[in-house]
Design a protein that fits this description.
Low-confidence stretches: none
Radius of gyration: 17 Å
Helix content: over 70%
CATH class: Mainly Alpha
Length: about 180
């Protein structure tokens, strides 16, 4: 159960408090530290999956823990950014992204109960969405609001939100026949 990929995933979760401390630390370098730690989390998200496949160490625990670590890390970072920016322009895509994660998690759980979990496997669009989302958060954490880099991050966050809606529609479409049966 506790193999190398799962330890990498647990390491990602353990970094969350350090991202928070870095972001709120009274220092001019706080943004760079928080963004760097978040970038490390994003890189290890890729690494744990790669190691699980390469080392043939995929486990049910890892399959459960990996998306949980992703969702918690992203949600924490978005909540911090919503508080820091205190602007509708950042709040709207953050709500879209967090809401989608809740909907898809519930959908996956429900589909698993019906024995149809494979019908809603992770899609390519979901992977692109995650990459865009992680990149946008790195940019947004890296500098204070109102900078050019933050603007790039905000544009990327909107692209991630659009991909979020698209991927959610793909998942719901794939599950629609099962959802209609339960209505």
């Amino acid at each position: 159960m506790l193999n190398i990929p799962n330890l990498v995933t647990l390491f990602r979760l353990a970094l969350i408090p350090f991202i928070l401390v870095a972001y709120y630390w009274p220092s001019e370098s706080r943004f760079v530290w928080a963004a760097g730690l978040f970038a490390l989390v994003a890189a290890t998200d890729w690494l744990d999956g790669y190691l699980a496949r390469k080392l043939n160490q995929a486990t049910p625990f890892g399959a459960f823990l990996d998306p949980v670590a992703d969702k918690i890390t992203v949600a924490v970072a978005l909540v911090v950014l919503v508080e820091a920016y205190s602007e509708l322009w950042l709040t709207v895509p953050a709500i879209i992204i967090i809401s989608r994660e809740i909907v898809i998690s519930a959908l996956r759980e429900w589909m698993a109960e019906t024995g149809k979990r494979a019908n809603i496997a992770v899609s390519y669009i979901g992977k692109v969405k995650t990459t865009m989302q992680m990149g946008s958060i790195v940019f947004l954490l890296a500098t204070p609001p109102g900078t050019a880099i933050a603007t790039v991050g905000l544009v990327m966050l909107y692209a991630a939100a659009a991909l979020t809606i698209w991927s959610m529609m793909l998942y719901l479409s794939a599950a629609w026949s099962q959802l209609k049966k339960g209505a």
